[in-house]
């Protein structure tokens, strides 16, 4: 990160003016260095410009800051929140959630973002393990939390009550440095991992600048953050657009019909999504998406068939963002790069060191497959993703390290087979998993979702696959399903697919 990069970033944010620099220094002096600092400066720069719209109302930048500041004083004086406390959030996307995040950050509390769709057992486990000082939650989760009978959490606050929070207009808070923002990750099985981030201006300048530059976000006006704010991708896009003074639209849930209506009504020009959302919106009402000039897709693999579909129907507006909860944004592929290098995760962002390593931790040459690792303060950190880099500097993903299947002594990456299946004109979605097998160790099973009103047979599909795959990559079984299971983040839920088979590899009840 050099001085010129910093200058360019501040200029795009309209902060590199005498007024902007004065406001930044004044905000640091008053607030300290925390997420509220960003909103403080944005409120002074953008004032009555629309800032945030949810399912119920729209507030401008001045109102958003005032509500967040009032709530921070309310949290401190009424609920006795203080620096270093653990504040959990169990909320959908809405205005009260956003103001509560800013307010708790201002106090210097550690913010824990929980997945509302994690399931009863997982939520109970997280509550017991983390022993939050305060949990801010939506009304819909009250019965569930009451059923837990958890004494570890000291206070429960319903998010609906925060809209009417009051505080002394002259009340002040001491300056504070930001606490941690903790994302609880780990998929659908096993104990969640903690992806810990401590907001830092210098640490996030380079990723932010690359995001703005490649997606040309400084030229956009209104963004629809369709991804959940409890995920790093969602909260990162929200804060980026606020820093630029843009209007941000959020919604408590994602339904394709509702999303298309929002995009048309709000004249959205940039939307942050996962690939499944893109697919559903194209199938719903593609004519309502004509205002879009940028679709930022992340959180899951973007297959070449979907890239081509977006290009055919909406033009060259699809970007592929790759990152991890722990490492943040790592690479970006532009529409032009996706057209030239189908399936690529793009080039790494400025200031990031990303490479493929073997099992011994040794860096691999271009073209060699290994686990992607990112350089951190403590050395090379494993991402858990398998991939490789080509000679031109573009990265490609092969799946997760725990997805790799060893069948008859051969290493098989399911994503390679899934990518081929995605090109079949009669297939809407496909997933490949490994099933326990006494002879081969594991055998390949492909789950296939045919396109509507089309019928496929196993033999027809295998005949189509044989010329395109190595013999050891051919699925031993093909299971046709009506729909594929997905997690709350829109990722394919292979753990759910594995339930189709018993521990011995025998088929169970069919999926619907």
Pick out its properties.
single chain, 512 residues, alpha/beta, Rossmann fold, Luciferase, domain 3, 4 domains, 13-stranded mixed β-sheet, 16 helices, 33% helix, globular, medium-chain fatty acid-CoA ligase activity, AMP-binding_CS, AMP-dep_synth/lig_dom
SSE arrangement:
Elements: H1 3-12, H2 18-31, H3 35-46, E1 50-53, E2 58-60, H4 61-77, E3 86-90, H5 95-107, E4 110-113, H6 120-130, E5 134-137, H7 142-148, E6 155-158, E7 181-185, E8 193-197, H8 201-215, E9 222-225, H9 232-243, E10 247-249, H10 256-265, E11 270-273, H11 275-285, E12 294-297, H12 304-314, E13 318-324, E14 328-333, H13 335-340, E15 344-348, E16 354-357, E17 370-376, E18 379-389, E19 395-400, E20 405-407, E21 410-412, H14 414-422, E22 427-437, E23 441-450, H15 458-465, E24 477-480, H16 494-498
Parallel strand pairs: 1-10, 3-4, 3-5, 4-7, 5-6, 9-10, 9-11, 11-12, 12-13, 23-24
Antiparallel strand pairs: 1-2, 7-8, 13-14, 14-15, 15-19, 16-17, 17-18, 18-19, 20-21, 22-23
Description:
With 512 residues, the protein is α/β, with parallel strands linked by helices. The protein folds into four domains: 195 residues, Rossmann fold, CATH 3.40.50; 150 residues, Rossmann fold; 49 residues, Luciferase, domain 3; 95 residues, GMP Synthetase, Chain A, domain 3 (2-Layer Sandwich), CATH 3.30.300. It is 33% helix and 25% strand. It contains 16 helices and 24 strands. The strands form four sheets. It has a 13-stranded mixed sheet with strand order 2-1-10-9-11-12-13-14-15-19-18-17-16, with helices on both faces. α3 crosses α5, α4 crosses α5 and α11 crosses α12. It is globular, with a radius of gyration of 24 Å.
